Amino acid sequence: MDLEILTRDVELDERLRGRIVRKAGSLDKRIKGITTTSVELTLNNSRRKEDRFIVEITLDVAGSVLRTEERSESILEAVTSAVDAMERQLEHLKHKIYRSGQSRRYSQNQELQAPDETIVEPEGPETA
Question: What is the pTM assigned to this prediction?
Fold first, then answer.
């Protein structure tokens, strides 16, 4: 899983970076096939204190793109609530895959992403 953290008008310190990495790691445990995770932190100058920090999480999972956005007056609260919302979306996707019988196709897609080993038999002299 590739993790990308983007910031706009927010200072990313080690404590915040550590929390984002830890929380994003917990998302990876929910379902196989997360290829990229993008976390965007934004400071919004609005009149409402509750909308001050915006956290957007975007995941690329098995051909689907999942996105969540949460707003809060604290950046840490916004990260936690965005990860919680994304966990709910991942559980919904997981149940949808297994309920609809797509689990076989999903596992085949995962195998297709793995390196392909090809066995070539040498051609011998033709016998008539």
Answer: 0.74
